Amino acid sequence: MPTEPGGDAGADLPEQRRPASPQSWPGSPGGIIVLRAANDWDGPWFADQQLAVSLSKRVPVLYVDPARSCLGDAPKDALLRPWIRSLGPGLTRLTPVVTPARHRWAISRLTGALVVRSLAKAVRALGVHVEALIDCAPLAPVLGRCGERRKVYWAQDDFAAMADLVGVSRNRVRRGELQLARVADLIVAANPQVAEQFSKGGRPTVLIPFGCDPAVFSRTLDAEPASDIRLAGHMAGFMGHIGERIDVAVLEAVAAAGVPLLLVGPRHPRYDIGALDRLLSKPNVQWVGARRFEELPSYLAAIDVGLVPYNHSPFNEASFPLKTLEYLAGGRPVVATDLPAIRWLDCPFIEIADTPSAFADAVRRAVEAPPNGAIRQQMQDFAAQHTWDVRAGGFLQAIADIQLS
What we know:
Radius of gyration: 21 Å
Helix content: 25-40%
Mean pLDDT: 88
Distance between the termini: 32 Å
CATH class of the largest domain: Alpha Beta
Shape: globular
Low-confidence stretches: 1-21
Structural class: alpha/beta
CATH architecture of the largest domain: 3-Layer(aba) Sandwich
Number of domains: 2
Largest sheet: 8 strands, mixed
Strand content: 15-25%
CATH superfamily of the largest domain: Glycogen Phosphorylase B
């Protein structure tokens, strides 16, 4: 089940971002961390892939894709042997292959069993054991079934609140979440609201929000604006999925205020783009579609303020918009609607505005008075406190603190 944190306008992982050799793992010798991801490695660059890369700098990591149907492009014998390949020193990828209709209620148990079998074969082939399993796939959870010493549920979002966006049963997702929470030694929540929900239930919970990659976005200050941008002048920009999470009225107010507006990112597959027709018809609005992760600095270089124009759906309230930190890492101030994660960041370079008129006014002020070089450096310094390497360190410390029985 895909998630939608920020950074979702990009796609593939270029060669230069392959992980370096890992440092020593403080767990037992021969142990690895298995990250059972919510997103396919080859898909848009989400939190899963970025955390895996940062973890792999310190510990061996096995990245487990969401299960793939045997009727797809999987190798013919992938149901019989693990489909594993190296992504670089310290980072290996496993793609479990299962039967068709893998997310249907009647088949989800078989899906989970096949994932467990595939993982067991991969671990034997690698000659390692599972020091910790991080699971964030509530539709077919496998936590506690893979011989792992430590069990972690990574609650990236309120997955049940996202169920309608991806076309699955909310009740099924909620049951999967509760199963993961019951089995887990530790719940790592990416959002303060999600952390509070699980903490109230008495489960051991730690808040570790999403991070950012300053090495990529710091290039914004020296990047040439992308050649396909037709807008001119000081402009605002949004990077991310174009879908139901966006408050269209907020963006319409920005465009109506005369501010050029650049939209970068793919359309959510279940979203009717017709809902944006009126906005996209305006001459001061341009949507360039999906762009590779490594290309984003050239689009960020063209804008003067980054936007987080999310509505107050239950999913948004329980999310952590990663794009917020990416804007700041590129030296761009942010205007955002009032979300718990935005409040948690408590950043002086983020202006919160929660009505269309207030949002448009804040954006207009930002584009009319862009920050100088010293202020941009302060924004980048703030983002540098929230890198994926910092988050990976938090994960490893939290895992090390789990008391084994």
